[in-house]
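Weekly puzzle thread! Below is a chain. First person to post its structure in token form gets bragging rights.
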Amino acid sequence: MNPYKQIDPVFEIMGAMNEPRHIVVIGAGVSGLTTALQLCQVPWNKVTIIAKHMPGDYVDEYASPWAGANWLPVSAKGSRAARWDESTWEQFFKYATNLPEAGIHFQETHLYNRKKDLDVDTSKPFTELAKPRPWFADVLKDFKPIPQEELPAGYDYGNKFTSVCINTAIYLPFLVSELLKLGAVLKRGELKHISEAQNLHDSGKKANLIINCTGLRAATLGGVEDKNVFPARGQIVVVRNSSNGLMLTNSGTDDGPEEVMYVMERAAGGGTVLGGSYQKNNWNPEPDPNLAIRIMKRCVEMCPALTMGKGIEALSIVRHSVGFRPFRVGGARLEKEIIDGVEVIHNYGHAGFGYQCSWGCAEELMGMVEGRDDDRHCDF
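Winning reply:
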């Protein structure tokens, strides 16, 4: 079974007549790998991926390994980003159903909301998620409100549904394996200017298309230098304790506007992720022990199954981690540009939502490459 969207048969016929298209993708996070894999579905696309960091690396500036990760859309109804999210759900559903080796599994998800959180600045990007019936209720077959008597104390309303949790330590190498099967080449490299990528295709020929999936690096990469990009620091605790199959989150906490609560158990022994924080423009790579204690207390309170009522002392900690989400003012950038005479398509700035919009962004980008879509800015 091929889990990927198939290209138009007309393109297969055209392939025999087409010259190879030499494409360099910069970046090997979830956006870069997914975009490259989508491009590889077209047989005359010859893809080389250049990245400073690759799956298996754990450094704070390489965001993808640190993600939870899951599918919980925050995009506004009818927006471009909502289309990305919905397309990505279709792909994740296929993976979770048919390809356990991808490291994605279904989880019952509970979302608890308080009306008082809706006016907090850090909650505003999550307005759609906090609605009594968000748009994705029509996408998920089992979306339903949580009865009032089942809500934790202090919460006004909530919803439950089946979503997915992604074990990033499995999923990112899985994407690499899929790319290698399709002939893509992955190479380490660090660029000072985006135009350097034109000379880095594995064939030795000049690239006629560059895909920029550099995440936070877009803020400083020559030729891009997007000053709307900055980090949103996330701190998590990974534990061995099970959440008994539940993925939980809420609309806010009483510990400060930059702190959040979520619990998600990764597939295939990946541990349970307890979060977290959303600290904009904070570059501190070291875990804050006081924040870690608050994270664990919030999660154990919300999910007593973690320690069977024994408190945070009963948590078996695998590690404390910090990563930097590639936040961008105005939302993700997915658009074309000519730089030094070479066509570039930017695909970066997805903040904490890179996984859940990854396939939708890749599919739209493919449309740009094939001339089937125009370039637009994101409207969350």
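Puzzle host: Confirmed. Bonus trivia for everyone else. The first strand starts at residue 21 and ends at 26.
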